[in-house]
Please model this.
Amino acid sequence: MAADYGLESLADIKFAACAVGAILVTSDKKYLLQHRDDIPEIWFPGFWGTFGGAIDAGESQEQSLIRELEEELEFTPTHFSFFTQITFDFTTIGSDNKYRSYFEVPVSTSEIAAMSLHEGSGMRLFTASDVWQMAEIAPYDHFALRLHVMRENIVPSYATIS
Model:
């Protein structure tokens, strides 16, 4: 039994085979994160994470991103770009590969003010320093956000690409 999560096995957790995550970032480099619901059927209940979710059958990653943001925040992004994809290989424990694709979604303070939260128990802006030090953040989202914070160090020409 996973002591911190009250789960008997990974089979008790809903983890989509393919999912999207929105890296919602302001012009002053703050990240809008969701405080996840505190229900045992999801990965990392009560933690902070990116907005997003499962890709439905027949949907593209981009369609899923837009749908998830509309469902969770009543927000339709006008601009977004693919950032990275993380693969989770669970074949050694009898499952299959899971994929989570992350998109950078620029947001303004006026867009944030107009958002209406429909999933999760809260939302809040965090600085890169806050994200770097957070303990209660879903680890896969934490990794993607750290990559985003460090992107110009990883690929020095990134600033001229985007």
